[in-house]
Amino acid sequence: MLISSFLSHQYKKARRSSIWQKNKALNVLIFIVALIILAEVIGFSLILAHGWHELFPEAETLSSFFKISVFYFLGSFAIRFFMQQLPTMEIVHYQLLPIKKSTLIHFILVKGKVNFFTLISLVFFTPFAFMQVGYYEGTTAAWFWLIGMMLIDLNVNYFVFYLKKQLVNNLKTVTAILVLLALFVTGDVLKWYSFSDLFAQAIVGAIRQPLFWLVPLALLIFAYMLNYRFFYKRLYLEEVGTKKSEQLHENRFGYLQRFGLIGEIMLLDIKLYIRNKRTKSMLYLTPLFWAYGLLFYPSDQYTSDSGFMIFIGIFITGYLTITYLQSAFAYEGSYYDFLLSSGIDFEQYIKAKLTLGSIVIVVSYFVTLPYLYFGWHILLINTAMAIFNLGFVTPMMLYFATYNKKAIQLSRGNAFNFQGMSTVHWLTMLPLFVLPTAIYLPFKWFGHPDYGLLVLAAIGLITLAFRSFLIKLIGRNLLEKKYIMATGFREKN
Amino acid sequence: MIHIQHIQKSYNDTVVLDIAELQLKKAVNFGLVGNNGAGKTTLFRLILDLIRANKGTIEINGEDVAKTESWKQITGSFLDQGFLIDFLSPEEYFNFVGRVRGLSKDDTSLYLTDMEEFFNGEIIGKKKLIRNLSMGNQQKIGIAAAMMGKPEIVVLDEPFNSLDPTTQIRLVKLIRKLQETQQITFLISSHDINHITEVCERIVVLHKGKIAQDITTSEDTLEALKTYFAI
User: Fold this and answer.
1) Beta partners for B206?
2) Inter-chain contact A268–B88, Cβ cutoff 8 Å?
3) Fewer CB near the last or first residue (10 Å), C or N of chain B?
């Protein structure tokens, strides 16, 4: 009874939230993407389960897969850590009612168990269970194995809850966990030790002696109790909510203040990024985007397609700046009325944002300089694209940013949160990637790809020279749109 | 000082504000009262050029607020939480506002020392971000920031809300003092007719977007307002 009304409240909350209402198209898109991912996992796991025994000699068929599943769980741990929301729901509403504390906690915990990641794991392991484990060890063993794997998966799930609840917003611990995980994996791959072997042996043992599966079950109960006790002790208004006293690091970038109002505005934006959950998690992801090139540069197949390399170049040197400028005003939506009435000079305000964006591009450029390892060609492309980003892309993104009328709630969610994003966001990304490729490709087709790069860099330099004019242009646009923007930002969703 | 002419604002054909003419004089505090939906906040937003009027103009010192910017330098305001940057500490926020208003860091510190009584020791040096402070303390920060940099006009929407009784009384005193010493003109809206009669020389009652009464405050004003609202 109670549980079903909780569930119905949750459903209503999701359905009636304005984000859902306004963003039906986006939700459908997310749903489709989720379906595609699921279909891909199904396909992948079927192929894997079908052909796995051909990859490894018979004696190692199963154990080699078990070894790999360690990395699956580790990966799943990392992804969950960053993407999974804590299932606190708004139990605050229920705390005043005569509902047992334990019911609430059990609800949170059990609901948190059922999620997309669990589903993925189920889909991933099922084919292998029956096509491989079943073939070698019999159907009963396959069932046990599948259940065992899901138990381990749930273990990962609950330990992530616990860790996350303990360590939210703590930069140092998050970094420490990442480094530890990386070391752990590297050590295993380089054969300093072999945790994966150990794990595989344990699983093989458990297949022979099903009683061993009680170990993950016991662990799961332990993890569940750990979470339960944690929540039980902390189920008070001020602790369930996100409001926590935050430590203050003042004047870390104090020297910026020497640059007058422009420096002050830049400092404000830096603080905005560091002190809010959503933007902070975007910062965490930046190294990943810098490393994006590693996916493509090692392969000749990609590097020979220089049109695609242009795209990568824009992305690597400009990603953080693009996302920053694109939402530059929407980030400040919650205090936009103040900015409008305080008498801040719009041109200085815009200049500050462009300057900060440019600094980030330059930093990104130098950080990714080591890609030189993959050849001069890469460096040339990235240099041209950095200049193009500096001169052309930054003002363009800021110009389009005035079309965003929805404030972004900074305190909520992570980097994969789409609140406050609208079609405009996606539309403005389009010219960003189409335009440079369109300029470049004709030169390539006529056999002078380097001229194409030169032209792109030249466009960057020319627009850079006209920056003060562009600032005026953006300023005029901002002035024109200010009522619409302010009205949009004032709407709380 | 402020001249409002034929101003009209409507949303979806519903007129929410319609004022033929209103002229506000320097150093004469102006109070705005009225029930919910009377158009108080709308009027303040129009004066601060935060929304576009459908008709009419508002001038501050002869400048149309929708077409010029310089009036912003002499106008401080605090309407709602949308005027606070909640991920800053109070000190950082005051420094930022100070910088925008052309104050040096020392000017700002000096100003904050002056405000210490109003803050009641709950704002400065607490090492907390604004978003972690209580509503009342956030309100104090907003009000104090609106008065920075010696403005000529200060616009406050419901300033007495969520302030504790002591701070309410201190705010009344503070407004009185600044009006006398710096000739600041306050524009204040409130549901609290007691306080508004204490600080304003002129009170306008809005009803459904129109001026229902325009009163020069006297000893009888409080009673008059009480009778007006006791329908």
Assistant:
1) B211
2) yes
3) C
Cα Rg, chain B, nearest whole Å: 17
Residue from A242, A337, A349, A483 whose CB has the most chain B CBs within 10 Å, to mutate: A337
Mapping DSSP onto H, E and C, the string for chain A reads: CHHHHHHHHHHHHHHHCHHHHHCHHHHHHHHHHHHHHHHHHHHHHHHHHHHHHHHCCHHHHHHHHHHHHHHHHHHHHHHHHHHCCCCCCCCHHHHCCCCCHHHHHHHHHHHHHCCHHHHHHHHHHHHHHHHHHHHHHCHHHHHHHHHHHHHHHHHHHHHHHHHHHHHCCCHHHHHHHHHHHHHHHHHHHCCCCCHHHHHHHHHHHHHHCHHHHHHHHHHHHHHHHHHHHHHHHHCCHHHHCCCCCCCCCCCCCHHHHHHHHHHHHHHHHHHHHHHCHHHHHHHHHHHHHHHHHHHCCCCHHHHCCHHHHHHHHHHHHHHHHHHHHHCHHHHHHHHHHHHHHCCCCHHHHHHHHHHHHHHHHHHHHHHCHHHHHHCHHHHHHHHHHHHHHHHHHHHHHHHHHCCCCCCCCCCCCCCCCCCCCCHHHHHHHHHHHHHHHHHHHHHHHCCCHHHHHHHHHHHHHHHHHCHHHHHHHHHHHHHHHHHHHHHHHHCCC
Instruction: Specify whether A211 is located in the same domain as A294.
Output: no
CATH architecture, range B2-84+136-229: 3-Layer(aba) Sandwich (3.40)
Q: Which of A275, A338, A411 lies nearest to residue B82, judging by beta carbons?
A: A338
**Is it the case that residue A245 has pLDDT exceeding 60?**
no
Structure token pair of residue B218: 């006297």
Measured between beta carbons, the chain A residues lying within 8 angstroms of B83 are: 335, 337-338, 341
Cross-sheet strand order for the sheet of B63-64: B14-24, B2-11, B55-60, B63-64
B150 interfacial to chain A (CB closer than 8 Å): no
- A180 and A284 both lie in a single domain: no
In the sheet that holds B30-33, the strands lie side by side as: B75-78, B153-157, B185-189, B30-33, B202-207, B210-216
Nearest chain A residue to B155, by CA: A341
Residues of A at the B interface, defined by Cβ within 8 angstroms:
243-248, 250, 257, 260-261, 264, 268, 271-272, 275-276, 334-338, 340-345, 410-411, 483, 486-487, 489-490
- Give me the amino acid identity at A290: W
pLDDT of residue A179: 76
Q: Of A6-20, A358-372, A454-468, B71-85, which gets the smallest average pLDDT?
A: A6-20
* A364-378, A416-430, B193-207: the lowest-pLDDT one: A416-430
Q: How far apart are CA A424 and CA A417, in angstroms?
A: 16
Reported ipTM: 0.89
B100–A341 C-beta distance less than 8 A:
no
Condensed to tens digits (0 to 9), the pLDDT of residues A173-191 reads 667 777 777 777 777 777 7
- Which domain, by its residues, includes A27? 2-7+21-240
Measuring CA to CA, how many Å separate A341 from each of A109, A413, A481? 47, 30, 15
* pLDDT confidence of residue B136: 92
B130 touches chain A (CB under 8 A): no
Sorted by where each begins, the domain ranges of chain B are 2-84+136-229
Beta-carbon contacts of residue A68 (< 8 Å; ≥ 6 apart): A196
Q: Which of A240, A266, A286 is where one domain is finished?
A: A240
